[in-house]
Amino acid sequence: MSDFSTKIKEQRVNTKISLQDLASKSKIPLRYLNWLENDELNKLPAPVYMIGILEVYAKFYKLNPDELIKDYFEAIGKPETPKQPSNQHKKRFNLNPELLRLVIVVLTFSLVLAYFIYQITSLNFKPTILLTPLADMTTANQTLVFSGHLKPINSRLTINNQDIWVSESGEFSQELFLNPGSNIFIISAISKYGKRTELIRKILRE
Fold first, then answer.
1. Secondary structure of residue 140 in the 3-state scheme
2. What is the rounded distance in angstroms from the CA atom of residue 74 to the CA atom of residue 9?
3. Verdict on whether the full-model pTM lies above 0.85
4. Helical H runs in 90-205?
5. Which CB contacts under 8 angstroms, 24+ apart, belong to 73-82?
6. Other C-beta atoms lying within 10 Å of the C-beta of residue 201
7. Is the pLDDT of residue 149 over 80?
8. Phi and psi for 79 in degrees, rounded to 5?
9. DSSP-derived secondary structure for 60-115
10. What percent of the chain is modeled with pLDDT above 70?
């Protein structure tokens, strides 16, 4: 029997634990433990898989895993299979300063270009007015509330040349007096680029 198998068996015997209990607690298959202790190392899985099994075994008994793995490879007469490098030893990605500057320049240029396109596009759009009342109407009331939503909110809103206050969310509401008979209201919105939108409401007061 090899010194390696003897060492494995003595480790278990000294701790007074059965093979069945060791297999149950360590989660190492019972047949692997039998082969390890009986010097039937040729029946074990490939060495690359045995590294993981021996690491579990070493952790269970609080042994040095590197020494245990080294003894195993000496027992089977093969050179030790190098371990896969852990994540902490992998080469870290270093961002080249020139590449970093290029990325910053490209991002800056893209933002400026997007803003420029937005400004150019805004020049061609008229303000949008969602208005209540939706259409011409007849009423017996002396006043009528004109309300709605304006977009963009930085446009100037007027009703019959009277400035109307618009909230930060674009909402507006204004109560206006109605003369007996026909009343014409011109609702006008002018963007900061001079684009104008007009709505006309004819309100008949009975």
1. coil
2. 17
3. no
4. 97-123
5. 73/47, 74/4, 75/2, 75/3, 75/4, 75/5, 75/41, 76/41, 76/42, 76/47, 78/47, 81/47, 81/48, 81/51
6. 19
7. yes
8. -65, 150
9. HHT--HHHHHHHHHHHHT-PPPPPPPPGGGSPPP---HHHHHHHHHHHHHHHHHHH
10. 88
